[in-house]
Every structure is written in structure tokens, then in C-alpha cells.
Specification:
The chain has 79 residues and is α/β, with parallel strands linked by helices. The chain has three helices and four strands. A four-stranded parallel sheet has the order 2-1-3-4, with helices on both faces.
Length: 79
């Protein structure tokens, strides 16, 4: 596990279709980074990774003022 990144110990939700990852692949990558991937947005969510055609998770994340990352921003931060 790579512990030298901003995602260690963070709860992360993914919404929409990602260009570079399948659902299984993004979950595996998040686990590799020491993050906790979850399927529902809540006040405990640290980041939302935003793909194409997001749904209600984006609306809820905005309402809760959760940090929203594009797929590219996630990639840059996880290097």
C-alpha cells in the first residue's frame, strides 16, 4: 500500500462513467492507495471522484460541500 498520498484513510465515492477505470479497477486502486471506497455519499465522505453523466451522488456531494475531483485530478494526486 502506498501511504504517501492524500487518500490514505479517506472515504471516497465514485459517480458517473470513468474513462480509465472500470468499477472494479477504481475500487482496487483506491484500496491500493489506502482509501476506503464506498457507494453512498454521506457527511463522512471525504472525496467524490466525478465521471461522465453523474447522478444524484453529485447533487448530494455538492449539498454536503464534499471535495469533488475529476478523474484527471485524482490521477495527479495519486501519483
Amino acid at each position: 500500500m502506498n501511504t504517501d498520498n492524500p487518500f490514505v484513510g479517506k472515504t471516497i465515492v465514485v459517480t458517473g462513467k470513468l474513462k480509465s477505470y472500470t468499477r472494479a479497477a477504481i475500487k482496487a486502486r483506491l484500496l491500493e492507495l489506502g482509501a476506503k471506497p464506498v457507494s453512498k455519499v454521506s457527511k463522512r465522505t471525504d472525496y467524490l471522484i466525478l465521471g461522465e453523466r453523474p447522478g444524484s451522488k453529485l447533487v448530494k456531494a455538492l449539498a454536503l460541500k464534499i471535495t469533488i475531483l475529476s478523474e484527471r485530478e485524482f490521477e495527479e494526486m495519486s501519483r
